[in-house]
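Contributing new records

If you add data, match the layout below exactly. Sequence lines come first and carry their own label; structure lines follow with theirs. Keep one chain per record. Anything else will be rejected by the validation script.
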Amino acid sequence: MKKLLSGLALLAAAIAAHSDTDALSSAEQSKAFVDLVAGIITCSTRPCLGDGVRHVREVVDDAIVTDGISNYSDLDVAYPSVAGVLQGIVEWDSHERIGLKITDFAVAPPVVTTLLGQSLEGCVIEWAADDPEREDKVPVLTASCTAIGTECRRVSVDVYFGHDLLMVRMSL
């Protein structure tokens, strides 16, 4: 009986430690994400919204692939500050739009949107209803706001939530 109780105590401790790790991971992910988006919008992080392709290529040491329309790079390469916390790709359509596609994202949508609303000047989150006419019938949770970037530019921020996936598009 004593062995059973000590085994249960170890199991409970392991579960609690795992929960703490998950909470820490979620907290780290949410902070890294919000800081990255804010940095891109305000240009305190490079490459940022408004940077031309030549400048982006310089910043990421030409670690870019292109399909002729957009340029893509690994999130860790473009933004080393999020390495080990966020993973995914970044897409530059032009100097006026940047998209992030983040995988293995474990933060609940209301947490992300609340933090964005608090961190981005002028950002008041609006939730969009899912389109019932979509052919693929995959539910998509979407939030958006307009934030104030550098030089008082208005920046549209659209956030899409999927299962362990977060996409955000920032455009001037």
